[in-house]
């Protein structure tokens, strides 16, 4: 069984039931999520060993977050408790032409207060087959960024492949650094990078407008990088999207099938579901095309699942991969 | 007022609310259903007399099942209580490309323990205008199969028309018989049979690939059969189907209009809704085309109704039959 | 900040959750609504001052109705309490080809018992920039009709523009008058009238079949009228509509963009949302086309919002007006 | 099996969940109730045949009321449909020193519009063993009062024992009659009367202050009366009551055990539960003491049951009658 | 009509429904509260004018907080919006021997970021009959403390009576000041002070152990103080308390009746309910004993009401004051 | 950190919300429980390592049961999947004099189908500090009984202390054995036995009527037994109990404090909570009195917690042990 390690903040997600708006609801549904933890939960649900590393406040809400991860079988032994808040985010779910809306409330979280040397990565990554990080972590605090760099370097030393999703959120990065100062060193250690020409231009000053050319430029800049990948999403409305993905394995380009998704039940975490599916695929199948198709199908299914994480099974994903999108009742 | 009798198991249906998955829900919504009882509830809701015959355990859950039937006006006086469980099924509702899923938990039910002579069919069928059965009942136990055969033979003796839906579920039939040994004798007494060429090949060794030819072959094999019918369903996704139906009245073929159904609220029991609608139509209208259109429109409406049974009214069905699918608000 | 005054009955709306039918629900969700109050709530939510004038019973349900209005910032100081019931309506939400259904229970309400001189309109309309009424009010009782006439005449005297939505509901008008005897005098004082050729034929005996010609005829009959407007709705199903609107500003015709709306979350109050949006637009923008587009976009958004009133924000409406209907997540 | 007939209005009851107040709730739980129908439901639940006679509007809410009665096995064949509203009442549940509160909304109901000759009592009461009425019915309208008088007289003619609960509610009686003009003629035909000295003074001008003496005076005034009974309730708080009851069988006095009830789950219908229990007891047991104890124990259990009607079983009541109030878990 | 002004933070309160624990709930009920705002809501509910002054973030959660206050008729015109979070607190409700538990999450709130000169107190307090503050506000930040001091001094200048509840919470006061440095100057301007000997010793170095003596010492230290008051609470369990209160009006001592409260529905805000009741009493009744009894009875009722604020009516409070704690159903 | 191993069936528990009865509910709340697993969950929640051994069906309901255990940190690695059902039980919660009621539906469960040699106890018990079993397991099937005997013998061989709760349920034991044939051999290997004179008479033919004497007789019959213990429960009603416990440590008798518990939120699993508390106490404290008090206080707290398992913390239990039952709010 493969073992994957992820590192990042986990927030409590609070959302009005159904299509209620913030200003009319009297109740909030609880879920937990964080882009890296979502990957871990999905991989654990696919049957692999997944350990998530993070830091929580030592009070009942922090404990609930741990319970959430444990219930899906995620290994939580490396999680640490300390001062600071539990990050929260409030989610209002849109429909048709009304967009979903997120109010973040993650300031001064226990995760942000992480110290560079808080985790013993040597031990944590022992025996791991994959390590995954995203651009949220280094955007939160210097401690988190330092800690992540150590993790990646340790993974490199131990020969553990690393995937990076250097997503950029402009409202983070408030501790004095710009992403361009931090992200390249993290990308250095990656085997797989998620992103497109636009993002690479912003982060790495890559001038190619075309995804393929940009991917090759990225590989030249960071020679460890073998895979470059991203999804293409056509947003017809908050309830209706079309999705496909592409993957470069060194020079070779792969393009997935395109899926029509309607209605969308929960849009959050569909990118993480893609990443988890792709990692599963690359760890399981020899053929990159098969890995790519597994990733997209996993993401497609996530759109029908409430919560941040993709709790679809391998067999459900494979039903889609094999071309059956009929949604036929399973008895 | 017409009187219809149905016979079969009724299960408690437990389903996570909305689109929640089994592994994330903390609550289950209760409904009750069984393919034959669904037909009875729908016909009672259309304003006809409907009596359902079954066997329940004599405890609060069995009593709740009776309450459920009674609330729709189904005559429950012939129901018997005894040992055994209340059959259950767990339903997870899918969306888009995620299929709905059923976990059956019906082993050793009070219904399965039925004795061949447990019901006085002579009395029960007195004055009835129709009797309906399905292939689930003879698949459950020898006692249920024997009991059903007696019911059909009594109906034949009393001149009560019989409809049969000889649906085949491979995971039933665990008491030592194969359907081919049991179903033909039951089909013998039928005026109306639901099914298509594929099913007839499996059950009756009819080799015709085409539905029309297969229907005629069936009528030759079972001379009492006057009507053969089935629905055509195009499954675009778990949320989007297209539906039509066909009917052979002796040699004459009828084809219904096709409906586009989106979104699907509850797919379960839509076949039973068709059967109830068709029986209502055949008992009410002289024109088989009208009966067929009533049946399909009834089934179409059921896709928008929660629970196993079609609680649409005759006037709602007729709105569709008359071509208005605009869903315009009724004040 | 502009100030708008509206006048009309507010009912408690009771609806089964989700897609449950009346005969299967065990709980009813509470909202409050009335076509004129919906306009007030929407305008208050857009940030303008809105005062609603009505009459409630002096018991906890009447107080709840006031709380509802107050929570959106509607000025409730002119509301009066007295004898009579709180009007109710029961709403069942449809889907696909199953229509939504309303059971009204508004007989003998506190509003119907209004006396002609119950309100001091001189004070209420002081400083107002707009007054809005609909054809529901004069259909309820002689007192309500008289009171409304006084309000319109006072508005005219004070130079406050008046909009009228002379909607006709055949099951109202039970106090002995026909709409043709009452509505014209009310229309007399209007700057803006909502309706189409069919309605104008019925109410004002205007024979033009074409909306444009009928609008011009209306302006000739009622010289104060400057704007005539209405929406065009194509009802594909209870879950899927297409919507646009047109506006005549004196001789000049404006036509809005057309929106595809799927799925519809709540169809009730979408006409009121259009009216509120249009009033907002006319009070805010110099260009009638911009006002019209704001109105339609407001109405489109309302289809995605639970309850009678449009609690979309100006910026959400403008996102649509600017052409973005992608429903892209806002962080 | 004994057969009981009851006659009276059934209202939809709408109550905020748990201890929420009217002005803070966003949802209302649905139940149905009416003092006479509550007696019918309880007796049907005890296993006797119970038929309830009433009149409903012919719309989905009226149909829901019928479904409610049917689900408990109450015979609804004599119910008629017609014009008028479905009576409603809104219930807020109190706790400790905060009282429960009811807002009635029953004006102009379909029941109030009953015609004197609307029901064929001869047929309805055929084979009945008991008929029960209360003082609510004659307080609603002349038609209802007339209809009830016919029912009682028919029962007397057919030899069916009659029980009357001539409860007085001052906010009813709005059709021009005083109870003193109407109730005595109804009491005339009774075998059993519920009430105490205070009520008898008010209705029948009986001057005795003591319940026993007043009961005897009542029996002298109405010679058909054999049983006089009432409960004694000590109200310590909305959550804590003490309850007992007394019964005069001709000259002989019986006094029940006293029960301590804490916490009270639902206080509504506990008097009706007593009446149903007592009727059950008198129809089942030879010993009036046993009947009385059954009645009180039934009422005590009702305090723990949500809704208007007592859905306790005979065996649960008998557990209390036999002295076990330990609430010990039944496996 | 009297007008009261309050000033302080309002937090969103999130609590698991019923008796669920934090670690097992999947949903949180929303309420809003803050000790001073609770006083304002209660006084508004009693029918007086109440204005609450605070500062919220300008996002949907801040707007919801305003909606909450507005729905009870609290004047929210003086509320300001700005940067910072919406303070939150998570509440788990206990029962019997299990205590209720609060997790505060109020760090860096918009309220804490208040500037000393953010509000124009001269305008706000114009025409006011009372100003109320508590010890939470000066414990949050220097800006809040400064702002409060200005408010009190302005009230003094305008002749508006001031009440202070100098409650001490050790986990606040994190901005570098000790309460002893701040509270005395605020107490200086008070007419009424809530507290007992223990609190006064801590805050004002008053050595008297007895409440009466301590109250007199307080009055010597702060000559403006006329009333000193506090509640006595006997905590038998989380579900069962006994409550009374005392009041010194200058030299004269008043002692209230003692109430037994069981079961407790919601313990939060019962002290604020006392304060609101007492202020109402002092502004309404000439007799301090009557004011005191009104305050205690108000607090007693609050224990039966969900949420932070006492939404009991004056007539409900007076029912208790007049000695009726029977909780008898009000029809 | 201590490590405890438990073995037994885990069922899905389905219960109507609040005080709803089976026949009136439309929804069921999900929990999971089993007497031995409840002990494991409580001990895990106290912070010890707890592993539960059982067998589930390999479908989503079985997976949900595992998720439930995992979320509390119970080690589920030794759980096996196979054929058979997931055992269920339906629970209706009583109040006051209405008893709670359980309908078991556990026939033919995956656990019952356990094979004697299905688990490698040598590995499972390696490093364990305690093993716990109950009389439910050997009552279910020969395979379960055999498997348990192996577990106890292995524990004995490895020097792991064993506790047994030989509870007798007459409706189990349907596989042909009587408890007297099976339980003694299991008791043989126990260090601690839960039970009283009545149970010991039934199971072991011990004639002593007094608990102390019976305990000593038990120790003579089974020389390994060091501790004998049980709770004393006075059942005043379904909502009000009094609880204490006693413990014999060899010859020495200990008696706990008595607690008054009102209201009871959830009575299920309170015995298991005692056992978990006692095991925690014996593993943690040198003084048996302290262990005993910890056990009783744990059980008392469980009465206030929904679900089968005690999710109180060590510090909450110790608050009670130290005498504070005031339920005072913790901030």
Q: Under the CATH scheme, which class of chain A?
A: Alpha Beta
Global shape of chain A: globular
The CATH superfamily of chain A is identified as: Ribokinase
Helix content of chain A: 25-40%
Q: How many beta strands in the DSSP annotation of chain A? A: 15
CATH fold type of chain A? UDP-N-acetylmuramoyl-L-alanine:D-glutamate ligase
| Number of H/I helices of chain A | 11
For the sheet with most strands of chain A, the description reads: 9 strands, mixed
Distance between the termini of chain A: 29 Å
Q: What is the H/E string of chain A?
A: EEEHEEHEEEHEHHEHEHHEEEEHHH
Largest interface: A-E, 27 and 27 residues
Number of structural units classed as domains of chain A: 1
- Given as residue ranges, the uncertain stretches of chain A (5+ residues, pLDDT < 50) are none
GO molecular function (chains A, B, C, D, E, F): kinase activity
Domain Carbohydrate kinase PfkB (chains A, B, C, D, E, F): 1-302
Protein name (chains A, B, C, D, E, F): Sugar kinase
InterPro entries (chains A, B, C, D, E, F): Carb_kinase_PfkB-like, PfkB_dom, Ribokinase-like
